[in-house]
Write a structure and sequence with these properties.
The protein is an all-alpha fold. It contains 4 helices and no strands.
Length: 118
């Protein structure tokens, strides 16, 4: 929920987008995303195959490589959003997918939360 609040605060809804709005939303979004990533990697380590916990190609390397690859995909979507939306609407165009993913993740977690403990 904190991540959702951070993303929503990032949108440019008024004519003036202040530095305080940017700093507060960026800090909230970054800290929340890091907390979620830590929890996700902890849960992943519990269900990952034991074979992936040793050797060079272990789970940590694989998750790092997946994150690096997805950062490249994100850079491509920023470029596409800039080309399609134009410079004036670039901020909101790049934040809309993040908002949709955040809302979908919260909905999926709420709908499956009780089944995670069986």
């Amino acid at each position: 929920m904190a991540l959702l609040a951070g993303v929503m605060l990032s949108f440019k809804l008024t004519v003036e987008y202040t530095a305080a709005q940017y700093v507060c939303s960026a800090v909230l979004t970054f800290v929340s995303a890091e907390v979620v990533e830590g929890v996700n990697l902890s849960l992943l380590s519990r269900v990952m195959s034991a074979r992936l916990s040793r050797g060079t190609y272990n789970g940590g390397l694989l998750s790092t490589e997946a994150g690096t690859g997805l950062r490249g995909v994100a850079d491509g979507t920023f470029t596409a959003a800039g080309l399609l939306a134009g410079e004036g609407r670039l901020l909101n165009a790049t934040l809309l997918p993040a908002l949709l993913v955040c809302v979908a993740s919260i909905a999926a977690t709420l709908s499956t939360y009780n089944s995670l403990f069986y």
